[in-house]
Specification:
Layout: E1 2-3, E2 6-15, E3 21-33, E4 36-48, E5 51-64, E6 69-81, E7 87-99, E8 108-119, E9 122-134, E10 142-149, E11 152-160, E12 168-170
Antiparallel strand pairs: 1-2, 2-3, 3-4, 4-5, 5-6, 6-7, 7-8, 8-9, 9-10, 10-11, 11-12
Amino acid sequence: EYTDTGFTIVFNNCVVNGTENVNGTLTAVYSNDSNGATFTTTFEDFYYGTIKLDGTRSFTFNTNAEEGTISFSVVSNMVVELEDGSEMSEQGTKTFRLIFGNSLENTIYELYGTWTVNANDNTYEVVGSLLEGNLACGYITNGLMNIEKNDLVFTVDFGEGECDDVATLEYPD
């Protein structure tokens, strides 16, 4: 079923290009304006072989010519169930932003967001991070990443602008 803003496909034991059987409902909705576009996919009892997907994932691409920026965001609320009954999930937002400068050193990228991943009886949560780097350096050069794993909270400190492969882990106590 197609509309001006997307489509819905209901799979009933389909084989797509020789792959595993596909079952379930897949809905895609998209929109755009002069500064960007958004694409949202919803999986409802969607199976690829024996792997089940449920939830939504949105992708947004934005540009701002006045600020000289491009950003790409992913918003997830997904659950994956494997054949053995184990589940993995991801919830949250991750954004990558590129701020153009007049050189590689002055062209900055930022990674930020808050998201939670549950897998193998472990919960990983990254909260309110802002990590930065520049295109002249192969490493993240600035920022703190706060991570929680099963109630153990620690911080990864990438420094204050140096181009190096050093990060400091800070554990409680």
